[in-house]
Write a structure and sequence with these properties.
The chain is 36% helix and 23% strand. The chain contains twelve helices and 16 strands.
């Protein structure tokens, strides 16, 4: 396929995905492309089964022929999102529209096996199961806690998975599959999920807060550190990674030498945080005081809470609003509450977001993508359709 045709097809596919339902005329108008170019591309995608014609729309104000409505054929294929963490994984299968088809939680114990061997084996077992069910799998997204260079597919550091030096996920894992396999930090995966499945224009500058409470095993864990907080940032519609890919790695301004984990909490606080309302309140206020500084400094429009936040109740939103307003430097009011959302995906936010990361890539604009020097493994495997 000629490069120009490939770029046009990519833009057309993304337009259909973003609009959910559209027409050849509307695509031509939105993209500024010739109607004949649109018709050739759309007919090719219909022939391949990627999109379908559904009905006739309304005529324009001047009358004339009614436009034919086109949309994605969501039965064409699915994407798989997987979150890996010590002891277990969560997998979510979604169709091309982002609707969940199935999900599961399974064991992920490495024992004597290498991390690469275990990751490949777990993903392969999921792929084989889907193939046996005759599901056309378009790609896999993986989310993990740690510092991830998503551009090159390298996990630079992950304490939960025991990674202390560069782990080449692209070479060790992704290359073992004949479909695209991508990896990113868990909070960034959540951000991709919000971008992919909401597809809202107002989500241009926002922060995603991911909260997870780890299991504590006194016989294995030397220190009780039950709280894990991840932050994902979107600035001007783009996921912000930072120059060393560690944007969003969080530590509280209030930590001391007695602190355990990311905040000023002691080990005893970690043990009691889920049972003691006073400790929980102190934890939330410290976290949100830090978040308020980020939100106001960057003038972000939305704050999205994912993972375990929703289980804590709406009082959580009240505390967040209070701490942001405390930090607000101007005399005019800041209407915060309506811009604080819970993630739609709850405890599945990372896995669901990893699937969204795949969809965002498959329906990506190649010109924009290459302009950002986007992921090597994404670019080299983009010819999915």
């Amino acid at each position: 396929m000629k490069r120009t045709k490939f770029i046009n097809n990519s833009r057309i596919m993304r337009e259909i995905w973003l609009q959910r339902e559209t027409s050849r005329v509307e695509i031509a108008r939105n993209l500024g492309l010739d109607k004949s170019t649109i018709s050739l591309a759309v007919n090719d995608l219909i022939e391949k089964g990627v999109i379908i014609e559904t009905a006739e729309g309304n005529s324009g104000p001047q009358g004339g022929r009614k436009p034919v409505i086109i949309k994605l054929n969501k039965t064409y294929g699915c994407v798989l999102g997987v979150e890996f963490r010590p002891g277990s994984y969560t997998a979510v299968l979604v169709d091309m529209e982002g609707e969940v088809q199935s999900n599961r939680i399974g064991r992920f114990e490495m024992h004597e096996e290498s991390l690469a061997t275990k990751l490949v084996a777990t993903l392969q077992s999921l792929v084989y199961e889907l193939e046996a069910s005759k599901i056309h799998l378009l790609g896999i997204g993986v989310g993990i806690s740690g510092v991830v260079n998503a551009q090159e597919g390298i996990i630079k550091y992950s304490e939960p998975l025991g990674i202390t030096k560069d782990f080449d996920f692209h070479e060790e894992v992704a290359q073992q599959f004949d479909i695209p396999v991508f990896v990113d930090n868990d909070a960034n995966a959540c951000v991709w999920g919000e971008l992919a499945f909401h597809r809202r224009k107002e989500l241009r500058d926002f922060i995603f807060l991911l909260l997870e409470f780890r299991d504590f095993n006194p016989s294995k864990d030397a220190v009780c550190n039950r709280i894990s907080i991840g932050i994902g940032l979107v600035i001007n519609g783009n996921v912000h990674y930072g120059h060393q890919y560690s944007a969003g790695e969080f530590r509280s301004l209030f930590r001391t030498k007695e602190s355990v984990g990311q905040l000023s909490l002691t080990e005893d606080d970690h043990r009691k945080v889920l049972e003691d309302a006073t400790v929980m309140e102190r934890f939330l206020r410290e976290l949100f005081a830090n978040v308020g500084l980020i939100v106001n400094t960057l003038n972000l429009s939305h704050i999205i809470l994912g993972g375990a936040f929703e289980e804590l109740g709406d009082h959580t939103k009240d505390i967040l609003e209070e701490e942001i307003i405390k930090n607000w430097p101007y005399p005019y009011p800041y209407d915060v509450k309506q811009h604080i959302w819970y993630s739609s995906f709850g405890e599945r936010a990372v896995a669901y977001g990893a699937a969204g990361m795949v969809l965002n890539t498959l329906f990506g604009d190649m010109e924009v993508m290459e302009g950002r020097n986007h992921t090597i493994n994404l670019r080299s495997n983009l010819m999915v359709f």
